Amino acid sequence: MRVAVVVILAGVAALVAYLIGTSPPNVVPPVMPESSLVPELPPWPVFRFFVGLNDFLRFLAEKTTPPDIRALELSNAFWQSVVVYALVKHGALDALFKEKEAACGAVAEMTHTHPHYMCRFMHAAATLGILEEPVPGTFRNTEIAEELRTTSRDRALWLSAMLRDSYVATAEKSILTGEPGCVEHLGAPWWEWHAEHQVESEMFDRAMKDFALRTAAAVVGALPLKGDEVICDVGGGIGTLLATIWEHWPSTTVKVFDLPETASRATAYFKHRGVKNASAISASFFDPLPADIKTCDIIFLKNVLHDWADDECVKIVANIKQSAAPGSRLAVVEAIVGTDGPSFERAKAAVEAGILSTCPMGAKERTLAEYSDIYRRANVLLGPDDIPTVLKLRELLSVMMMPL
Ligand SMILES: C[S@@+](CC[C@H](N)C(=O)[O-])C[C@H]1O[C@@H](n2cnc3c(N)ncnc32)[C@H](O)[C@@H]1O
């Protein structure tokens, strides 16, 4: 018995030493605003331990579920996102936040919804861990509900309201015609259609902001800076990444480059978050970029390349290379396929569902070798075996860094 305890303790000590010894360093920025999500990042060894444990438990759960049940769960998986949609869209989570705990009938009254259906959706949400149901018919929010009510709200609405229909069109039509899901669903390529539809375009930008908020915190927790850099983001949306970096490193200067409508929303967003030293520049990454790009020390390209086929990616990266000052650095933030355990690889496949639905043919999540091939074709990497430096983040995405 004593021997077993000693062996287990030695195993645990070896695992802890291994996790600590092989983890990347955490970067601590000079300023930590009260609203910062950076302190929520678990220390690297803890993060890696729990990701590994999650992979293992998920493997066990799936291996011990009979195939017919697993097949049913998979076929029926849509119900979970519909439950989320019902509660977020109709404000049930806000009502529960206000009341702390409430009967579903009272929530229905507050949200002007039908009590029968609201109660059934709330009960379903309790089975999913979104709500607690301490006594039948009475509910309160969990941490997941709070996440859905705040940081992830716009993303949840967009995924259910916009993306789902395009993904279904991809499965029903694109697979036969080869036309992208958004063209089958909306009748036009994604960006063209959004240029004509302001409400949906704003919704898209807000959803991207939700995706970007936690990644931005993870970038701040991983990217060493001097603090006086000019940091740019091409196709940077409304500027979520840059606003977050600036709040933690207020001596930096930040510049977002995006299409005209989005650039003007970025100006408003910078103002809303109180970001100084910020500008939003209207530009297309398919044309040579405006002269401002020459001032950039670091140029981010986040969740842009996965939207395009290889030839377009080469054009975007080559345009940046030709327009930027030599000595600046390119920082491509993407999920890199084949670098993580099964849970994260599955999450990357889920991201690709969005890419297939919204982007032109050829858009996809890529491996490091596939990205490196693009950088080589754009003359950013020169040697046949060169690869970018990969900075892992404490989440799904990584940063590929390379000099321009
Ligand atoms: C998937 S979003 C990513 C936004 C942001 N980088 C992020 O991660 O939140 C792609 C971005 O590319 C921008 N975009 C699309 N076509 C563009 C073009 N030709 N030139 C510049 N930006 C473009 C879109 O407006 C959008 O902001």
Automatic annotation (TrEMBL):
UniProt keyword Calcium present: no
A GO MF label: protein dimerization activity
Signal peptide range: none
Residue span, O-methyltransferase dimerisation domain: 72-148
tRNA-binding listed as a keyword: no
Gene Ontology biological process terms in this record: methylation
InterPro entries attached to this UniProt entry: COMT-like, COMT_C, COMT_dimerisation, SAM-dependent_MTases_sf, WH-like_DNA-bd_sf, WH_DNA-bd_sf
Domain O-methyltransferase C-terminal: from-to ranges: 185-378
Xref: Pfam families: Dimerisation, Methyltransf_2
CDD domains: AdoMet_MTases
Protein name: O-methyltransferase domain-containing protein
